[in-house]
Input
Amino acid sequence: MPDLQALCKWLDQTAVGAAVRESLWLFPAIETLHLLGMAALVGTVTVLDLRLLGWAMRRERVSALAGMLLPWAWAAFAVQVVTGTLLFSSEAVKVCSNPAFRLKMVLIFVAGVHAFIFHWFVYRDVANWDDRALLPMKAKISGFVSILLWVGIVAAGRFIGFV
Output
């Protein structure tokens, strides 16, 4: 992985990476925004997942709930990408080889694939099951897998500082 190491070394040496790393307040401020973004992202996704499982908000139409929550989830995801990139740039060489960081990145990728599969194969026929209290098994499985992935992402993120 010499190319990845070179990229990480370059990121470490950028003015942004150095500023975040060397500032007394910048890293904690960005990390706080990262945590708030994570709470918003995981919170909105979990509400939709709980509806898909039939464990919450059973009277709400799935499409209405998704319409309300997904814009917030996307905004929170954008916050995560920006703040995560800034945090990573400050410790890229150190974090790049961290197993917890690598697991987090793999799980985020898998969550993205899962979201793509959900929107193209499960949510595609939401009109057929939108207002049912009991949703089809594929919706329930999708909600359950999503919750597992996000719990894994959060846990792996917490372990980055300890591995």
The two ends are 20 Å apart (CA to CA). The chain has one domain: 2-162. The first helix runs from residue 2 to 13. The mean pLDDT is 95.
